[in-house]
Amino acid sequence: MPKGQRKYNGAQKVEIIKQLHNEKLSFYEASSKYGIPRRTLQDWERIYLEEGEEALLVERRGRACAASGTQKGRKPKLDKQVEEDLIAENQRLRMEIDYLKKLNALVLEEERQDRKHK
């Protein structure tokens, strides 16, 4: 391994990112505290925020897979049709939630009116 480069396991990466958040450190402060390049810390945080803690535990180095076009350890991207279906379902569910909220508000208002008249 070239001078100055260390290999961190997933648990170490997660712990460092959690400390970065808990102590509210800037990337520059964390870089000097842990001796890790700022860019590396930014990459780890991006992965942590986008894909979750488990994503830092997976080995990501290596060439992309020719068949799926993804790197080792990364989840393959969804094909367009599946992604569009999920977006449509998400929109439908949001509309359903909005409808149920309005219905609940109407029922509560009606009950309040009934109690008023009694």
Automatic annotation (TrEMBL):
A Pfam family that the UniProt record links to this protein: HTH_28
The Insertion element IS150 protein InsJ-like helix-turn-helix domain, residue ranges: 12-63
Family statement drawn from the similarity comment of this UniProt entry: Belongs to the IS150/IS1296 orfA family.
Protein name: Helix-turn-helix domain-containing protein
